[in-house]
Design goal:
It is a single chain. The chain is 0% helix and 50% strand. It is mainly β. Strands 2, 4, 5, 6, 9, 10 and 11 form a seven-stranded mixed sheet that branches. Strand 4 and strand 5 form a beta hairpin. It is globular and about 40 Å long. 34% of the residues are buried.
């Protein structure tokens, strides 16, 4: 069991960068694939990126491919989301979540969720 806690959100101008962090408690962190999702006002939660437990295999939503990068440090029980070339449409609450189902983009495959961190990108 893991409990993710996100940090690093904030306000940034279009074209800028932010790095989100997700620290997860629990001694089994290294067994879980860790994903990032986001939810904009009035929209459904959507997949952003996921990292396999080994940190080598990753997957991204087409909308962020080439701009965002997910990484993890299992020694620190932490996963990161580096967001570059941010756009106003990236504005959302970003959530970190854990799954034992590998590189899944399906919300229902994730068992543990953080409370989210707000990212606002101005034009």
């Amino acid at each position: 069991q893991v409990q993710p806690v996100e940090s690093g959100g904030g306000f940034v101008q279009a074209g800028g960068s932010l790095r989100l962090s997700c620290a997860a408690s629990g001694r089994t962190f290294g067994s879980y694939a860790m994903g990032w999702f986001r939810q904009a006002p009035g929209k459904e939660r959507e997949f952003v990126a996921v990292s396999h437990w080994n940190g080598v295999s990753t997957s991204y939503a087409d909308s962020v491919k080439g701009r965002f990068a997910i990484s993890r440090d299992n020694a620190k029980n932490t996963v990161y989301l580096q967001m570059n070339s941010l756009k106003p449409e990236d504005t959302a609450v970003y959530y970190c979540a854990a799954t034992l189902k590998g590189l899944s983009s399906g919300i229902r495959d994730y068992d543990y969720w953080g409370q989210g961190t707000q990212v606002t990108v101005s034009s």
